[in-house]
Amino acid sequence: MLSGTLFALAAGLLAAAASLSAKLSLGTDAPGPPCEADAPGRGACNRWLHLPLRLLCGGLMLGCNALMWTFFSRALRHSSSSARTTVTTSGSSFIFSGILGRLIFGENHGPLWWTGISLTLCGLLLLHGTQRSPGACSSKDQ
Description:
Strand content: under 5%
Shape: flat
Radius of gyration: 20 Å
Signal peptide: 1-22
Protein name: EamA domain-containing protein
Largest sheet: none
Number of helices: 4
Keywords: Membrane, Signal, Transmembrane, Transmembrane helix
Transmembrane segments: 51-72, 84-105, 111-130
Helix content: over 70%
Structural class: mainly alpha
């Protein structure tokens, strides 16, 4: 059960990393340090590095997505509930995306975002805190 949760958390982290890579690869700003266009001979310093960095970020996006699906399927295999695994992966992805957005891009999150994340965490705690009773029937029993 614990290994399923850990796999689901890892899948959420990899999903957030894939989103970060996609934003870096497809965003309007060129990844890398900015150059001063006013300086003579320095206006094109990022042009030769621009495309390889975008391709690298695109490759990271594909790799992170492949690993995310691998960890997600392992989480499903080791978990007793697919709903619990799905919610854990989605919730952790939102949380990790918010943390990475703050660290990498300096994004500020408003009170509504924090309220949503708090409600997500409360829902995760409820899902992980409830135990299925042994006599409860499932859809397989019907």
